[in-house]
Here is the input.
Amino acid sequence: MPTTHDDFEDSTPNPHLVLKDSKAEVQLQRAKYKAVVAREREQAKAAQHAATIAQKTRRFEARYELKLATLKQSAAERGRAHIAVAGPFYLLVLVSGFLILLAQGSIPQDQISIASVLLTTLVGMIGSNLRSVLSEGGPEDNGNGKSKPKTDGSKPDEQKPKPKP
Here is the structure.
């Protein structure tokens, strides 16, 4: 340490030696790092939770829209959709069942012609229903073969008389 002389007065303070506590500094930095990591983890968890909630909400809204669309369908539209989807399956079951029973010999010889006529009738009916559903299924048909009533108050099958010039 420097010494001071009586005749020389210095206004500078005596230098102090600062010892660093590196172990304490490292512990402090670790504590700060752990706090930052914990905060980031909490933010990530909150973001993940918000994303999960948003995904569940979207899924619920999609289900709601699907149910709403199903409820708004008329019975004729639902019947058309069912026949269009399940009609080919019904045909497959009827024909394959008949062929399997015929191959096993479960149908007696004198009853084969009756079973084939019944099967032909059923297949024809289901096929014609399927064909009509797929060709006609417009939204203006109300299911009974007639179109929806017109909004001008006249009957659907009537034609308005043409005005004379």
